[in-house]
Structures are given as C-alpha cells and as structure tokens.
Amino acid sequence: MKLIEQFEAGLFFWQAIILVLMLVLLRKFAWKPIMNAIQDREEGIENALKAAEKAKSEMQNITADNKKILKEAKLEREAILKEANALKSSTIEEAKEEAKAEASKIIEQAKQAIEQEKQAAISEIKKQVADLSIEIASKLVKENLSSDKKQLELVDTLLSDIDLKK
Amino acid sequence: MAKTAFSKIVFIVLFVSLPLLGFAYSGEVKDAVQHEQADELTSKQKIKKFIEHHLKDSHDFNFITEKTGEDSHGEAQYKHYGFSLPIILWDNGVKVFMSSKFHHGETLAELNGAFYKLYHGIIYKTDAQGTISYDDHDHPTNDRPLDMSITKNVTMMLFTLALMFVLFGGLARGYKKGPIPTGAGRVLEPLVLYVRDEIAIPNIGKKKYKRFMPFLLSVFFFIWILNLLGLTPLGVNVTGNIAITACLALFTFLVTQFSGNKAYWKHIFWMPDVPVLMKIALIPVELLGILTKPFALMIRLYANISAGHIVVMSLLALIYSFKSWVAGPSFFFLTFFISIIEILVAFLQAFIFTMLSSLFIGSAVADHDDH
Q: Are B203 and B352 in contact (CB under 8 A)?
C-alpha cells in the first residue's frame, strides 16, 4: 500500500481544526496561566532567596557595627575615666597648692601680727621700764640723796641690771 | 519527587493496559483469521490484511467483532460491539448520517437518491446495486465523495483534546489556590517543566522560548497521549497515520517560517561569508532543507508508531500461526516485553517531535551573533 494512498484529506482537515482549537483553547485556559504561575513562583522563590541573602549580609553588617560601636564605647569610657582621673589629681594638686599658699599667707600674717605685737609689747615694756626706772629713781633719789656718791653708784648698778634684750 | 510520580504513572498505565492490550489484540487477530476464511487466503495474508486494517482509520468505533453463525448462503454472520460515528460527506452539498447505515459495509447508504458504499474503509459512490468497478490493478474506479467524517481517529483526537483541557485546565485552576499544585497537577507540572527546561529553553533560548511554549506543550502532550492511547485496547492508531503526522509537521513548518527572522531568511537566500556563486548554489539547497525538516518529522513519527503497532500485532499473530502450547506463552511474553518498549517509544517519539520542532524554531529565531 502506497503511503500517499493512506493520506486521508478528511482526517487531515479535522486534525488541523482540532490542533488550532487546541492551541487557542489550551493557550488561554491552560498554558498561559500555568506558565505564568510557574514563573511567578520561580521569581518569588528567587526573590525570597535574594532577600534572605540580603538579610543575612545585613545581619552580618549589624553585628560588625555592634562590635565596632562596643569597641568605641569602651575606648570612650576609658578616655573619660582617664580624663576624670587627670582632673581629679589636678584638682587635688591645685587645692593643695592653694591651701599651701593660703597657709603660708596666714602664717605670714600671723608672723607680722606677732612682730607688731612684739614691737608693741617691747615699746610698752620700754615705757614701763622707763616709768619704773623713773619711779625707782625717784624713790632712790628720795631715799639716798644723802650722798652723791651713793646716788651715782646706785644708778649705775640699777642700770647695769636692766638688760634690754629684745 | 517528580521522578517517583512519573514512574508511578508509567507503572499504572503499564499494568492496567498491558493485560487488556493482549486480550484485545488477540480478540481482533482471532476474528481476522476467521473473518477471511471464506476467501482462499493463506493465514499469512490474512494476518497482513488484518494488521493493515488495524493501522487504518475507521468509520465506526469497533471494540470486538464476534462471529454469530452463518446464514442460508453459508456467509458468516458477525456481531459488532462498539458504536457508530457520524459520516459527513461533501457531494453536491453536505450529507450527514450515522455510520450504522452501512452496517459495517454490508449495506448501501441511500441519501436523496445517491448511493454510497463502504468498501475496505473507503466510501464510494455507487448505483442502487452497489456495483464497484475495478481498473487493471484491482483498484475501485468509482467516484469518491469528499469524506469529512468524524472517524475513529477524529473521535480519539477530540477525546485527547477534552482530556488535555480537563487535565491542564485543572492544573491552571489549581494555581489560583496556591503556588504548589495538588493532586494530578503534581504529576503534570514536572512534565510541563520538563518540556520547558529540557526542550524549549535549550533549543530556542531563554529570551524567546515563551512565545512557542503553547505550541510545543500542545504538540508534546497531544502526541504522547495519543501514542499511549494507541497502546491501549481501544485499538486506535492515530499518531501512526500519515495524515495526522503530516498535519503536525505542517504546523511546525508554518510556525518555523512565520517566526523566522531576518537572519534566518538571509541564511537561506543569501548565505553570508561565502562567495557569490556559492550563495546562488546554496539557495535551492537551503529551500529544500526547509521542506525536508518537517518531512522528516512527519515520516519519523508515522513510521515509528506504525512499526510499533505492526510488531506488537505480528508477534500476537504468531500465537495463532503456531497454535502450540510453547509458542503461545512465549510470544505473549515477547509481546509484553515489546509493549513495554512501546511505552518508552510513545514518550520518545513525542519528545523527539517536540525537540526537533523547537530546534527548527530555535534556528529560525536565533540571533546569529556568532557569525
């Protein structure tokens, strides 16, 4: 049987119609929605994977940042502590200096005051001694003015006894 | 996961269809041997005739024919189990009637004064007595009306269309519920992905494959389902019919030519980078190439599927030729083995047809940047 004799035009005709029908119908109701759904899903998976990767790297960045921040904070704390320490010691030092200066000033003043008091006291004593001497002298004069010689001797003795020490 | 689902399907198809396959074929072959007993034909010729009859299209859907007895003239009487199909003829206007009018070729169909006879599966216009005149080569010379009948093969194609619509329409609807298909979609989706990832994308390219997916998917599943149906006891041979494969190949041809870009046509009519004389010499060669590609598609599918049917039926027929207790079981198991191979061939041929179609389309839409 020859191959060309087997060719049935009617069958060919129906096959063509069915194939066209199939392409139109299945394209609209099956292939397009299926391919779109599969593609959407694949894109979704890809995006999700990308997002996960991004989140991971972000997480790593954050961790690194955290570490950095922590380190910086530590350094800052140390610096602050150091500064505070320096401030403390300098303050103490300053206070000491000030106190010393104040003390020496007070001492100086006290010395001056003492000196003045001493001077005042000496002059007072001198005055009193002079007064006393005059009193003594007048007494002696009153008593021993009999003899001039005696009077002079007495005066000398008295005067030598008085030691005008500071 | 997809692999297991696929092998499951294959096993189900295998174990459901194979025992029935043997049964149905054996029934048909037995009938054929008895059918022709009145004629003086050798058993070999009878089997050949029967196989030829099986490979051809039919105007009614017959499952089994049973010999019920003989009439008064000694002619065998048969009972046919099946259903009749509509006959559509173009003979000075459309004429529609059911094939039951022919009584399996035993009677003439009379329509508005015109008589038609079903003779060896072909409808001829005859006189009221149903006379068939022959030429020197024993071919009928009667007029043939244009036969547009819904034959057995057309019925099977419509069934396949409906089946694909239900299966893949269902899969498409399934995506509305969620991104992962359920039920039958779990098996179908990997197959769709297989066509996309193993056939379309490698041959056409990631940028352009989308446009051709509906065609490739349709052709792939159409051929595959019909190949598998051909292995069932329905006894149909759709993809092993030259008109069917010619139509499929024609569609590939048309899709290829209509999607061909500038570079494609330039390579046919004015091949770049060769001398002018060579360019002219290459035009007929290239033009012939356009035609031989789909022609090869047509012959390959037709020959492979027909050959498969012939081998399976011949092996079964050997049981009736030898009629021995040794030959029976051994040929049955040989047929069983070949049938399993045929299931593989059913897939393989669908794959090859789609693969080569996408290869041709791919060459028509390629950018030819490498030249």
A: no
How many domains are contained in chain A? 1
- Partners of B90 in beta bridges: B94, B146
Does residue A150 form part of some domain? yes
Instruction: Give me the residue from B169, B243, B251 closest to A8, CB to CB.
Output: B243
Domain contains A16: no
Q: Examine residue A97 and state whether it is found in any structural domain, yes or no.
A: yes
Residue B159, chain A, CB below 8 Å: the answer is no
Query: Are B248 and A19 a contacting pair at CB < 8 A?
Result: yes
Taking the Cβ of residue B116 and every Cβ of chain A, the question of whether any pair is shorter than 8 Å is answered with no
Residue given tokens 């000491």 in the structure block: A96
Q: Is residue A105 part of a domain?
A: yes
pLDDT tens figures, B298-319: 999 999 999 999 999 888 888 8
B303, with CB counted inside 10 A (0-12, 13-18, 19+), is middle
Any bridge partners for residue B118, and if so which? B123
**Can you say how many angstroms the Cα of residue B286 is from the centroid of all Cα atoms in its chain?**
30
Neighbouring residues of B243: CB distance < 8 A, sequence distance ≥ 6: A6, A7, A8, A9, A11, A12, A15
Instruction: Give A-chain residues touching B179 at CB under 8 angstroms.
Output: 37, 40-41, 44
Whether the CB of B172 is below 8 Å from some CB of chain A: the reply is yes
> Tell me, what amino acid is at B301?
L
- What is the DSSP code string of B91-145? SSSEEEEEGGGGTTTTS-EEETTEEEEEETTEEEEE-TT----B-TTS-B-S---
Say yes or no for a CB contact (<8 Å) between B169 and A29: yes
Q: For B243, what's the count of Cα atoms within 13 Å in the CB-facing half-sphere?
A: 23
Å between B161 CA and nearest CA of chain A? 6
Residue A130 belongs to domain spanning = 39-161
Query: CA-nearest residue of chain B to A31?
Result: B214
What pLDDT, in 10s, does the model give residues A90-140? 999 999 999 999 999 999 999 999 999 888 888 888 888 888 888 887 777
Residue ranges with strand state E in chain B = 60-70, 76-84, 86-90, 94-98, 109-111, 114-119, 122-126, 146-147
Q: Do B218 and A22 touch (CB under 8 A)?
A: yes
The answer, yes or no, to whether residue A1 has pLDDT greater than 70, is no
- Nearest one of B216, B265, B268 to B365, comparing CA atoms: B265
Give the residue extent of every domain in chain B: 86-149, 154-365
What ipTM is given for this predicted complex?
0.80
